[in-house]
């Protein structure tokens, strides 16, 4: 049996953190496969202690344009995933407009650096608040609507390799992403009876603004031994012309390949699984 060109035709997806980078790549990929895609982002700095720049509302508008160019209908909202009411309003608009919600890509996240016993309380609260609690709020808003729609669905939680291993220098980020593993696995059991699958993906070294060379140079300059936990990826990138290179960073579109697989029927029996996306680096 051949795979349909638009296997997600008739499905509706929600992608958080979609103004740029990985979130945008996921939104555009799902649209190109036939889905209507609701996109959201805070489009502003989450905190002054985040060293890399934030996206703008224009970036989110560009994602909407790209989703529509890829063939999907779209809705968008500038919101903070730490605000449950705003997420619930967006889900209500989604159901009013499209009648269903099938796919959630809980992708929004934030990173900053510091040793655990030196972190300002605000940094701990901010990173846990966005990455862990904000992802729970995304689920809290979306799952009741998915259950009511009665079509089952797929939830993809964007964790990190830092959710599966120690990452000295950003232990609060690691703790937030490890918390997402527990959230994923418990939700997979709870939502399974409604036909909703839940899996987490664990990227490493994806070429996005979050990878801030200055912030990393500063922490690794102070604590060179921490570099050991941020090893190069062992798997060579074999290009179409046969040239192999050791890639330092992977493009967001490669992560979208995995999201697309987990969103679609090809993964219909996969739930409660952690999928590393790191060209084998976890095994060091
Ligand atoms: N880049 C990497 O190497 C890497 C590795 C592992 C995991 N991740 C994870 O991948 C996801 C996407 O990150 P990215 O690499 O595309 O970086 P990014 O900074 O470009 O994307 C994150 C997006 O989330 C949005 N966001 C942050 N806080 C928000 C909030 N409170 N409410 C709504 N939106 C918010 C940001 O504005 C941004 O657009 C994140 O969860 C990140 O932790 C990234």
CATH architecture: 3-Layer(aba) Sandwich
Spatial sequence of strands, sheet with the most strands: 3-2-1-4-5-6-9
Number of domains: 1
The biggest beta sheet reads:
7 strands, parallel
Q: What pattern of helices and strands is seen along the backbone?
A: EHEHEHEHEHEHEEHE
Q: CATH topology, which one?
A: Rossmann fold
The CATH class label is: Alpha Beta
Work out the helix count. Answer: 7
- Amino-to-carboxy terminus distance: 39 Å
- What is the residue-averaged pLDDT? 95
- Radius of gyration over all CA atoms, rounded: 18 Å
Proportion of β residues?
A: 5-15%
GO molecular function: oxidoreductase activity
Organism: Dietzia psychralcaliphila
Keywords: NAD, Oxidoreductase
Protein name: 3-oxoacyl-[acyl-carrier-protein] reductase
């Amino acid at each position: 049996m051949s795979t349909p060109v638009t296997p997600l035709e008739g499905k509706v997806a929600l992608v958080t953190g979609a103004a740029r980078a990985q979130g945008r790549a996921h939104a555009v990929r799902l649209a190109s496969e036939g889905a209507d895609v609701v996109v959201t982002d805070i489009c502003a700095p989450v905190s002054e202690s985040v060293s890399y720049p934030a996206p703008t509302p224009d970036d989110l508008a560009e994602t909407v344009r790209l989703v529509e160019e890829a063939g999907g209908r779209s809705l968008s909202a500038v919101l903070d995933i730490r605000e449950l009411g705003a997420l619930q309003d967006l889900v209500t608009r989604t159901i009013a407009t499209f009648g269903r919600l099938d796919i959630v890509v809980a992708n929004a996240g934030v990173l900053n650096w510091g040793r655990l016993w030196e972190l300002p309380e605000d940094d701990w609260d901010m990173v846990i608040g966005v990455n862990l609690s904000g992802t729970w709020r995304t689920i809290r808003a979306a799952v009741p609507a998915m259950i009511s729609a009665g079509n089952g669905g797929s939830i993809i939680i964007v964790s990190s390799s830092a959710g599966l291993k120690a990452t000295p220098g950003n232990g609060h980020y690691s703790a937030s992403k490890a918390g997402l593993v527990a959230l994923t696995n418990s939700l997979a059991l709870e939502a399974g009876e409604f036909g909703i699958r839940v899996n987490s993906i664990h990227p490493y070294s994806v070429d996005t603004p979050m990878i801030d060379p200055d912030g990393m140079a500063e922490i690794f300059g102070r604590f060179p031994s921490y570099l050991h936990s941020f090893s190069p990826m062992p798997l060579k990138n074999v290009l179409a012309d046969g040239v192999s290179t050791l890639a330092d960073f992977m493009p967001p579109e490669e992560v979208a390949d995995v999201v697309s697989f987990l969103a679609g029927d090809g993964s219909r029996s996969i739930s409660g699984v952690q999928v590393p996306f790191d060209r084998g680096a976890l095994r060091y």
